[in-house]
Each structure stands twice: as structure tokens, then as C-alpha cells.
From TrEMBL:
Pathway, per record: Cofactor biosynthesis; NAD(+) biosynthesis; quinolinate from iminoaspartate: step 1/1
Name of the protein: quinolinate synthase
Superkingdom of this protein's organism: Bacteria
Record's keyword annotation contains Cell membrane: no
A GO CC annotation given for this chain: cytosol
GO molecular function list: 4 iron, 4 sulfur cluster binding; metal ion binding; quinolinate synthetase A activity
Length: 112
């Protein structure tokens, strides 16, 4: 069971506020530098993964996460098409639809 789940900034905030001296961090290893700066007195442990292989069980070594960038995301959103299509389970899609629509609505208010 996780003590904290969230974005990079939320995980760093949790690291600051959690009383534990050791923290097991289960996310992309890119967060470790910033987190260690925020809590130099704590020991950060990389959660065990399947290793350096490119599988979805290897989050700390995720090759796809490192490939994401603003330009590629913008191109995917603007161009669409089969090359950028992602298949999502129906139940997951339904659960994600509300927050996605909220983000799109918020972005629309910024452009207005």
C-alpha cells in the first residue's frame, strides 16, 4: 500500500512531509535527483522492477516515458490518426473521460 500517489511535485511534497527515514519510490528514476535535493536527510530506494528491459513492469526504467516531449505530444494531438491511436479498456476510458474533459474545458478557457 502506498503512502502517497501523485504527480512529481506531489511525490516530492509527500517525501518532505512523511515521517519515514527511508522511502521506496515507485516511479521513473528521473524524479530521484529533485527528490534527493528536497530531502537530503532521507534514503530513497528505487522500487524493484523487472530491470532495464522495456516492459510495463519496469517503470523506473521506462524507455517510453523518456521519449515523451511537448513537441511529440502536440503533434499527436494535432495530427491524430492511427499512428497516434491508443487502445484503452472501456472501463478505464469511462473513468478517465471526466478528468480529460475537465482539462480540455480548462484549456479552452485559457484560449478564450
Amino acid at each position: 500500500m502506498a503512502d502517497a500517489v501523485g504527480s512529481t511535485s506531489q511525490l516530492i511534497k509527500a517525501a518532505k512531509t512523511l515521517p519515514h527515514r527511508q522511502l521506496i519510490v515507485a516511479t521513473d528514476r528521473g524524479i530521484f535527483y529533485k527528490m534527493q535535493q528536497a530531502v537530503p536527510e532521507k534514503e530513497l530506494l528505487e522500487a524493484p522492477t523487472a530491470g532495464e528491459g522495456a516492459t510495463c513492469r519496469s517503470c523506473a526504467h521506462c524507455p517510453w516515458m523518456a521519449m515523451n516531449g511537448l513537441k511529440a505530444i502536440a503533434e499527436g494531438l494535432e495530427q491524430g490518426g492511427a499512428a497516434h491511436e491508443i487502445q484503452v479498456d472501456a472501463a478505464l476510458r469511462e473513468g478517465a473521460l471526466l478528468p480529460l474533459n475537465r482539462m480540455l474545458d480548462f484549456a479552452a478557457t485559457l484560449r478564450a
